[in-house]
From TrEMBL:
Domain VOC residues, every copy: 11-131
PANTHER family attached to this UniProt entry: BNAUNNG04460D PROTEIN-RELATED, VOC DOMAIN-CONTAINING PROTEIN
Residues annotated as transmembrane: none
Name of the molecule in the record: Putative glyoxalase superfamily protein PhnB
InterPro entries documented for this protein: Glyas_Bleomycin-R_OHBP_Dase, Glyas_Fos-R_dOase_dom, VOC_core
Taxonomy, superkingdom: Bacteria
């Protein structure tokens, strides 16, 4: 019988990417639209209107944490995140339809993954891959 350690929330993984972006609310919506993400938490910044101090979105078995950048404190940082998806071509097309910019069309190279990449409006480059047999 497996139990969750007391030092972390149930169903959370031990390592989570933390993104500091230019529009956390838009990034959350992008994650929902493109990856079917489930929003877990959203904490508004009481000092800054229309800003999020912290938010969490679950993609499959992973929780992604994110927040809005703050001038003079927490600048937006461009990041790269890899996500395995059931259909890399469909996910890539959906991302472009949701406003992402293509970085690399999905292609299979020298390994068993077909992968491609796109950049969202918040500055994160998402690399998506599907294992092909």
């Amino acid at each position: 019988m497996s139990t969750t350690p007391s030092y972390k929330p149930a169903s959370y993984n031990s390592v989570s990417p933390y993104l500091v972006v230019t529009n956390a609310a838009a990034t959350i919506q992008f994650l929902k639209d493109v990856f079917g993400g489930e929003e877990l938490r959203r904490m508004p910044d009481p000092k800054r209107e229309n800003r999020l101090m912290h938010a969490e979105v679950r993609l499959d078995d992973t929780v992604i944490m994110l927040g809005d950048c703050i001038e003079g404190g927490w600048p937006a940082v461009e990041a790269h995140v890899h996500v395995y998806v059931p259909d890399v071509d469909a996910t890539y097309a959906k991302a472009l339809a949701c406003g992402a910019t293509g970085v690399q069309e999905p292609v299979q190279k020298d390994d068993e993954d077909k992968r491609g990449g796109f950049k969202d409006a918040g500055g994160t480059t998402w690399w998506v891959g599907t294992k092909v047999d």
